[in-house]
Amino acid sequence: MRIGAVIVAAGRGERAGGGIPKQYRRLAGQSVLARSIRALRDHPHVDTVIVVINPQDTEHLDAVARELDARFDTVPGGATRTASVQAGLEWMRTYGADAVMIHDAARPFASPSLIDRLVSALDRHAAVIPALPVADALVQVGDGDAVRHPVDRTGLQAAQTPQAFHLAPLLEAYARLDETALPDDAAVILAAGGAVHTVAGEAGNFKLTTPGDFDRAEGELAMKAITVTGQGLDVHRLEPAETMWLCGIELHEGLGLIGHSDADAGLHAVTDAVLGCAGAGDIGQHFPPSDPKWRGAASDKFLLHALDLLAKAGGQAVHADVTLIAERPKIGPYRDAMRQRLAELLDLDPARVNIKATTTEKLGFTGRGEGLAAQAVVTARLT
Question: Domain count of the chain?
Answer without folding.
Answer: 2
